[in-house]
Amino acid sequence: MRPLGLRNIFRYLAVFVVAVSLNFMLPRLMPGNPLALLAGVDVGLMTPAERAEVIEAVGLDAPLIQQFIDYWWSVLRLDLGFSFRSERQISEMIMERLPWTLLITVGSLAVSAVVGIVLGGFSAWRRGKKSDLSLLTGMISLQSLPSFWLGMLLISVFSVQLGWFPSFGAVTPASDFEGWGHIGDIAKHAILPIVTLTVLSIPGVYLTMRYAMLEVLGSDFIRTARAKGASEARVLFGHVARNAIAPVVTFLAIRFAFAFGGSVIIETVFSYPGLGRLIFEAVSGRDYPVMQATFLVFTVAVLVANLVADLLYPILDPRMRVR
Amino acid sequence: MKKRLSIPILIACLTLVAAACSSESDPTTTTVTGGDPTTTLAGDPTTTTAATPAEPVVVRAAITGDEDTINPYTYISGFPGWNLLMMQYDTLMQLDADGVPQPWLADTISANGDLTEYTLTIVDNASWHDGTPLTVDDVKFSLDYFIEKATGRFSRDLRGVVAIAVSGDNGIVISLAAPNPAFDLVALADIPIIPRHIWEGIDDPGERAFDISTNVGSGPFMMTEYESDQFYRFVSNPDYFRGVPAVDELVVIVFADDAGALAAIRSGEVDVSFERVSPEQIALLDAQDPLDISQGPEFTTQMINFDASKAPFSDVVVRQAMSLAIDSQDIVDTVYLGAATVGSPGWVHPGKPAYNPAVEATFDPAAANALLEGAGYIDTDGDGIREFGGEPMSFDMITNSSDSLRLRIAELTAAMLGDVGIEITVVSVETATWEEAVWPGFDINNGRNYDIAVWGWSAPVQANTIRIADLVNSDPGIGFLNLTGFSNAEVDAISSQLLTEADPATSQQLIGDLQVLLADQVPFVLLAYPDGAYVYNSEVYADWEFIAGQGIVSKVSLLPASARP
Q1: Residue B432: which of A160, A177, A284 has the nearest Cβ?
Q2: In whole angstroms, what is the distance from residue B229 CA to residue A281 CA?
Q3: Fold for the domain defined by A97-320
Q4: So where are chain A's domains?
Q5: What is the pTM for the complete model shown?
Q6: List of chain B residues whose C-beta atoms are within 8 Å of the C-beta of residue A277
C-alpha cells in the first residue's frame, strides 16, 4: 500500500473543510425557517415575544458568524447536537437509523455487485453478439426506470395483489416478535426495498464492468496472451477481469459511501425508517442540526470511500503503484 | 480465495432470508379477527389472556408523518397530532357528533350573563393512568401552566383569562377580561388537562426531551410504545371514567406518504387511515371489500390569497373581478369530484348556524371583464393581457408541490383568470418555501412575499365563527391571520365588536352583516370546504363517529355508545 502523500492529505483536508462549511450554509440558504418545527404547528398563534423566545432558546438569534464558529467547534468535538424537532441527541437518532439503511443499501449493493460484474463481464466477452446487445438494451431500460415507480409497482403486485410481503416499515408494528421470528420479520420487510434498490443499481455496475472489460480486451497484452496460446477462460479471468476490476471497485466504494446518505425515495415509498427518511424529514421541517449532522456523516463517508479506493487502486492495478 | 468465498456465503444468506419469508404468514391474514397464531398479537401478554372469550379488538391506523412523543408540548400537527394527543388526555368539554361541546371532565358548566365568568364542577370519578385521582387542582394547575409556559395553541386559547379560582371540593371559576361567547368551544373543548404531579417538576417544557414516561393522561388510551418514524402503541385504559373503550389496542403506524398508507389499507395491513382520502380514491376504495368510507363536511378551507396591500390587488374592483372570474362550483366538481362544499364568499360554512344564506358565490366572467374595463384595466397592446400602470397584469400563483389537489386548483384558477385577461404562472415549491412566502416567519408583521397564492386553513380557524376577525381585521394584534394584508374600516369595526359581543342575537346579526360585507370586499377568494373522507376496514372495527367539521379521528370513535357525549 502506498503511503498517502502530503499533498493528498492536504487535498482531503481542504475538501473536508469546504464540504463541512457548506453543510452549515446549505440549510440556512434555503427559504423557510425552522420556527414551525420549534414551536409546533400553532406557531402562528404565538405572540411575537413568544416566538422570539423560541428562536433565542436554540441560539438562532446569534450572529451567523457566531453560529458558524459554534458549529465548527461542535464538529471538532464530534458533538452532533440535538434535534430541533425531538430535542433528542442526533448521534442517537443516526445510530437508530443507520442499521436499517445499511441493511437495505449494503444488501442491495452486494447483490447488484455480483450480478452486475458477472453480467458485465459476460456481455463484454460476447461483445456485439445478440446476447450482449439484448443485455445492454435491457440494462439501459432498467437504468431509466424511476425508482419510486418501481417501488410502487412492487408494492402493488407483491403486497396488495399477492400479499407475499409487507408494503411498509422495517418490522411489524407492535408485534413483540423475538429471536428468529424477529429476524424473519426484518428479512421479510427488507426484501422489497432491497429488490428495488438492487434492480436499480445493477445497470451501473454492469455498464462500468462492461466498458472496463472492453477497454482491456482491446489492449496489446491481451493479444499477446491469446497469441501465446492461453485458453479463453484464462485470458478472461486471469488477464481481462483482473485488469478491469479497478474502476468497478471505485464505483462500488462510492456507492457504498452513498449508502450512508440513505435512499430518500426508496425509504419514503416503503416508509422505511432509515437515514434517508431522517434527512427528508429534517429538510422539510428545516431541522438545521439534523440536516448538518446527516450531511456530515454523508460527507465523511464519501471522503473515506474515496480514500479507500485511492489506497486500494495500486493493490488492484500494479501500474498505479508509485515507485 | 476471499473473493470466491463471498458468493456462496451470499447465496446462503439469501436462502436463509427466503426461508424466513416462506415460514411467515401471509400479511393479508394478519388482521385482528384472523386469529392466526403467528400474527402480530402472538405472545403479547396484554392482549392474549386465555380467560377472556372475546378476541381483543386491535385497530391499526395509518398517519403520514411522525408526531414525536405526542404530549401537549411535543405533538407536531394540528391534525391528526392534536387528535392523537386527545386519545390520552381529556378536555373539560368534549365535542359531540354535531360538533357541539358537551360536559366531559367538567360535569356542569355555567356562565354569567355577560359571558366573562365560567363556573365548572369537575367529575369525581376520573383518574390518571398511574392511578392518582384527577382533581380540580390538576385542572387549575393545567390552565396556569399553559398560561405561563407558551404553547401556540393552548396559551392562545387562554388569552383573556384573568383569574382561575378553585371553589369548594370540585368547583372552579374562570374569569375573563372580556366576554368570550366561544370560550367553551375554543378553550374548554380544546385544552388537555395534565397531571400536576408529573408536570410541576418540569420547568421548561420547550427545552426538555420527553419520552413516553411523561405521557400520563386521563384519556381512554395510554401510550406504551413509540418508535420514531415507525409506530405508536396505545392500549386501552380499563379505568376510564366514561367507561371501558370499545377498542383494546390502537396501533398508529407512521407512513412516509399517503401512497404508502393507501397501499397498506388495500393490502389489509392497516385497518383505518387517520389521513383524509383524496377525492379520486373515494369510490375506488369504497368498492373494495371490506373497506368502507366515512365521509362528511369538514371545516378546512381552500382559498386564493392575494397581497391586498399592494396594487393592483389593493383595488377592490380587481378583487371583485377575480372572485367573479373564478368558478368555485367547477373546482368542486373537477378537483374534488363533488366531495366538497362550494366556498361562501362570506367565509362562514353553510352548515354553521351563523351562515348568512343571502351570501352566495357568483361566477360571471362577463361581469368581471366589465368591471376591469370600467376601472381602466385595459389590454392596450392587444396581447390578451390587461395592463395596469403600464405593467401587464401577469402574476405568479404560488402553491405547495406536496399537495396535488392544490396544484390542480392552481392550474384551473390560472385558466379562469386568464379568460378575463389576468395572466397567471403557477409556481410550485415545497411546503416550507411556500409558507415562508405567504406567511414569513409566521408573523404578519413581517409582510408578504407573494402576489397570488393557493392557501388553506385547518378546521379550528373555521370552527369558531367569531374567529373571522383573526383573518380580516387590519390590526395585527387582532387579525393575526390576516395574510392578505386586507384592510377595511367597516370590517374592522364589526369584527372587533363581534369578539366581545355577549348577546347571541346581536352576535348573529353582526356575523350576518359581516358576511355580506366580506362578499363585497373580497379579502380572499374562498373556493371550497373539502369534505373529510376516511377509509376503514369494517370487519375490524366499524363504529367510527364522524364529528361534524372534525372527522372520525377522535376518542369518541373508540368508545362504546354509552360512553359517548
Answers
A1: A284
A2: 10
A3: MetI-like fold (1.10.3720)
A4: 10-79, 97-320
A5: 0.83
A6: 229, 256
